[in-house]
Amino acid sequence: MTDEIVRAAIHPAIGIARVGNSLEEYYTAPEVPDPAPQDPGFYKDSAGAIKREAARFRVYGYNALGEVVAELTADNADIRWSAHLANKKAAWYQFQLALDIPDAAGAKASELRNKEITGDLRKDLIIDPGPISISGRNLSGPDFHFRDGKFMGKEVYLGELRTDEDGHLLVLGGFGQSASYNGKPITTYANNDGWHDDIGDGPVTATVTVAGRALPVDPAWVLVAPPNYAPALKGIRTLYDLLYDVFVCDGSLPFPDRVSFARHIAPVLQRFTDHQWVNHGFAGYYGHDGLGQVTTPQMLARLSSNAPTRRALRRQVFNALRDFGRDGASPVPWPWLYGDAMAIPPRSPLHHMAFSPTQYRMFQYWADGDFEDDWGTLGATPPPRTLAEVRLAEQPAALDRAALDFCLADAFHPGCEVTWPIRHPSMYMAPFRIRHRPADRPEPSYGTVLTPETALSVNGPLYAQAPGDLSRWMAVPWQSDTASCRSGYELSLGPRHDPYLPTFWPARVPNHVLTEDDYQVVVDETRPLAERTEAFERRAVWLRGLRGQNTDQLNQMIDDWYRLGIVEVREGAKDFPDRIQVESRPSIDLEGVPLTQNLVTLHVPQAADPALASVAVNQAISVSGYTAEEVTAGFIDKVAPFRDNA
């Protein structure tokens, strides 16, 4: 009986694809939580275009005990895949603030996007090419393209299906193309009427027959996201961390029998250190030679000990973690990341992010000494770098985790890959597995404004999902939000100003990076150490190639998103880390551009009025002490989500 397959399941349960503008080249998404880093230059083709990231789906057969018996491929099963991508952003509601937090009561109204388009004409705002099926090995071509969907009468390509040599499904997203049907420019970070992009999401299903017998198959979901500009980095709190907490809290998954330093604590501490490659504030404190660098071999040896003599050290780290009940709105506790209610000026503890309750509980056990000191064994063992190195029984879970570990849950404002509805248990049929809406059960209308009460109601949008339902909550187009997510926002007249912290999403959208030129100085051991150190500690603003005021930069990003650098892993050097992450050379125009351009994004409310804009911007530059090249000043609605700062 243990060898008899009685059902099958698709993994990863949620697969992540990413847009890119390379017409021919792509790569597959991570299939293990700790893959080996790719060689420099891997993520762009020879013409400088960004490669698309394909989500690869596999089928596993299970016995009646729920144990994995075999992976099912074209060698041992007949598999017919189906997938359905759609884009509903323009027909959905505006994003103002996550509607499931208390602060939503004071937020601007979430009105319909493109509200002037009414009745049946609103269907023209939905890009829905319908489902596509595919079966066999090494298949590709126009017959498997999501190309029949239209936006206001214009055909929009959302991606395509392929299969590999084993019959696995590959889902590729769009080419990163965004446009306005009426020629209006971008004016905001998230809610640009008339605009569409080629992001999408939807169900992935399969019919599976083994030895002439059809099996029930647990379905999956695919989500197309923006590019990953720092592919070797994980956020402080990953999407896997968030969802694992959701399922632990609702009782569908158990809390670990024993907290492991190697599995549960050290990887999170390492993420703080790794953020040195994408944010200057993290670099100064947690990075190389920083005051809070807790991941040196010596420190890890001390922190991994559960001896009573190390309790004070462990508790110092634990007490540095943000606890909303204790810390309120203080910006001091870790991590130094924005939260769901980010606003300028800050008005809520949720202006900042905290660990999930499950993460926090793990760290509490660790601080108390109630954990497994396994750093000397597991910590010294390299993790699996490919799926083939993972035991068969553990492969489905590895796939599920790998897809989500490289997605963020740092601030749903709205987010990088997905936003706040993803944290509601009602969205799932089983852990990590999205609940599908039957095609014959259409979603009801929620009116002209989506209120928190309606959004969270039993008959609201947080239950069964249809194609396009996850991505519809995100910014339209995605480029305008990616260009808006920076660090160190502050009022121009505020008493304190930090150009580096707090920050949005630096693990996907970098803030400050080590340039190729400075890296070459660092690794040149013939130069004086002081010169190399100066180069190492210098950082360039990743978005320094965007010019003009805020709206000018948002519009430039539509065309130049692929010209930005990718943060890549390079060899280290004596006196510096063994591995250094470096910005690939941007192809955006940097002629005469200082490394610090766009270092600060000041929120100047007066600049919302064109008659006052010039004076307000000049005043902000004067008060801040930064030069015009260092400052992009203006009214930025991303940090003004509340009604009283409309």
What does this structure look like?
- This protein is α+β, with helices and mostly antiparallel strands.
- It is built from 14 helices and 27 strands.
- The strands form eight sheets. Strands 1, 3, 4, 5, 8, 11, 12 and 17 form an eight-stranded mixed sheet that branches. Strands 2, 6, 7, 15, 16 and 18 form a six-stranded mixed sheet that branches.
- Strand 15 and strand 16 form a beta hairpin.
- Helix 5 packs antiparallel against helix 7 and helix 11 runs antiparallel to helix 12.
Write the topology of this structure.
Blueprint: E1 7-11, E2 14-18, E3 26-28, E4 52-62, E5 68-72, E6 78-83, E7 132-134, E8 145-146, E9 150-151, E10 154-155, E11 159-163, E12 169-172, E13 179-180, E14 195-196, E15 201-210, E16 213-215, E17 217-218, E18 220-225, H1 239-249, H2 261-274, H3 280-286, H4 297-303, H5 311-319, H6 324-327, H7 357-368, H8 395-405, E19 428-430, E20 433-434, H9 452-455, H10 478-482, E21 490-491, E22 512-513, H11 516-522, H12 529-537, E23 540-541, H13 550-560, E24 567-571, E25 579-583, E26 600-603, H14 610-624, E27 631-634
Parallel strand pairs: 1-17, 2-18, 3-4, 21-26, 26-27
Antiparallel strand pairs: 1-4, 4-5, 4-12, 6-7, 6-15, 8-11, 9-10, 11-12, 13-14, 15-16, 15-18, 19-20, 22-23, 24-25
Helix pairs in contact: 5-7, 11-12
